[in-house]
Request: fold
Amino acid sequence: MTDLTPYLKPEYYKNRELSWIQFNERVLNEARSREIPLFERLKFLAITSSNLDEFYMVRVASLKDQEKAEYTKPDIAGMTPTEQLTAISKAVHKLVEKQYSTYNRSLVPALDEAGLHIIDEQEQLTDEQNAYISRYFDENIYPVLTPMALDQSRPFPLIRNKTLNIGALISKSGKLKKADFATVQVPSVLPRFIHVPSADTPSAEHAADKAEGNAEDSGVKSTGQSAVRSIIMLETVIEKNIHKLFQGYQVLCAHPYRIMRNAELGIDEDDASDLLLEIEKSLKKRQRGEVIRLEIDDEVKPELLEVLLKEYDIGDADLFRIPGPLDLTFLMKLYDLKGYDALKVASYTPAPVPALSGEKNIFKAIRRKDIFLHHPYLSFDPVVSFVQQAASDPDVLAIKQTLYRVSGNSPIIAALENAATNGKQVTVLVELKARFDEENNIVWARELERAGCHVIYGLVGLKTHSKITLVVRREKDGIRRYVHLGTGNYNDKTARLYTDCAILTCDARIGEDATAVFNMISGYSEPSRWNSLIVAPFWLRKRFLYLIEREEKNAKAGKEARIIAKMNSLCDREIIAALYAASAAGVKIDLIIRGICCLKTGIPGVSENITVRSIVGNFLEHARIFYFCNNGAEEIYMGSADWMPRNLDRRVEIVFPLYDEQTRAQAMHVLEVQLADNEKARIMNADGKYEKIDRRGKISVNAQEQFCEEAQAAIPEETAPAEGNRTFIPQMKEI
Reply:
């Protein structure tokens, strides 16, 4: 075993949280790129805002808990929780400044040119616009609002996590010294923006009460057309009419604000007699968690700000003065406005899976050969059909599946319920601890139980993150097991947005191991031997370390040695140290890592043979693929696990080998094309920064676009979709 001690120096590692902020900056760079259609840029900016919310509620909240507990142990980069929080605050303030610079200086002017005007709160409106807004407030907004005041008889009201609110100072005398604080929540049940008559529109008849997402075609045909549509933010309308809420008082000032709370549930599973009920209770506590961030209008009066800072005990590090609309996720809704197709990427329809062409019986197709799935380029329908056909097939005896995140109205859930109704043995592990999907998963778990499925609520102390479905079928030559193994969730909606890989197989070795996995999950019995599947938290770490060290030994012996690994995040110190040791031995290592990467490249004698690239594109890169040269006896694996301590030590994960030559070639093709990408890939430099690739004199390669083209080219002519039916919808939400 290689001594990794020389490679464990803190200076060889990057802080996980700062690396994540770098990832969000790469997403933000897509919003700043003029090479991308305008409305796609809006989405990328919205994604950075959504990402940042979750980062604070989870990662920053956890660090604050550690700081409160006086936990001072440094991370792998040698930073204590307090040092991390200081660095995070500095980096995030810069990021937020860059977000709003992008919004105010780039996107808003570009929207104006495109015929869509966002009315600024300081903007002078026409008499007709003011009259329209006043009437809209009286008829549609006022009845929903609940103003709340703070005085000696009324305590500070509960402000819910992530809600948008307007704080005001009100006074009967008109003097700030005698002013009371009041607040009103901006209703989330109403549209965030409202259509109003444009200044150049002769009549308000042209601005019917249109809400986000269902507006009529504005007639905008090009980006050069003058403004024909104006919208105003809901909070701006409330601000302009807030005096109507406080009759008999003067409103001295009113400004939007928003708080972020600690969203960690902190469940003690050992003491929870009923995990489902315990999580339900904890979800309610999320709305009352400690406030860890305050966003407020940058024009706020000091007297109003002082009230909020005192109530929430917020310092400058967690105070964000915002020069624009709070919570930029509203841009996702703006994207849905009709009439702007020319400013969006053309839609994409996932292609049929070639291996299933002309074959209605999916089990028959799987018996012929393993089937490789690459979503969203290839359709997710075969995965749904796999479960649906199993549910109705009289020869299927049992279906077993793990569910981490599923969609609303999930066809997978419906198929499992149908299977139970048809008398099949259905076992489903629903992971209740899937963060921010807890409530949704509780609903599904109860629904499945009502249908007669045997539901398991995960394992104590572990999240079940593996993606596996086992179908047991009675056939002429005996029992045969069919298995789906993948890198992504059983969610038919995100399968159109995330890039994931999977296989459908009836390989006996994998089938036997799949049975062992479910027996282990449901009965806590670990089998004496395994054929193929590598399972965390039992021996996945050990296996990866062995595979990396094998390449190191081969390089030292002058044999062929190479590693290519594609994943979402890399932050496990032992794995990184092993990669450093392999690199020092001469192993060429190419890492394709979308998000967090705590490894540093270019360290003399340590990581000079390692490259790290990140691809941020229209789809969220989510697949995990691992290649080990093994002196020409190549081994290729896919699975649900990243190289992170939580995946290797605290989750039930499955990594599986690819045996079939065609599936191996298809997985390698994914890696090769992504390594050739010079449009969306960013390369990590020795200073830790990511830079675009110089394409001068080179053929331009966009991996995601190439996979789309290859998938469409493989469709038989009689089943090919109509021209222009292509959908790219960026989603960058997972942390």
Remarks:
- The longest strand covers residues 250-261.
- Confidence is low (pLDDT under 50) at residues 202-227, 269-273, 723-735.
- The chain has three domains: 11-343, 354-532, 535-701.
- Residues 354-532 form a domain with the Endonuclease; Chain A fold (CATH 3.30.870.10).
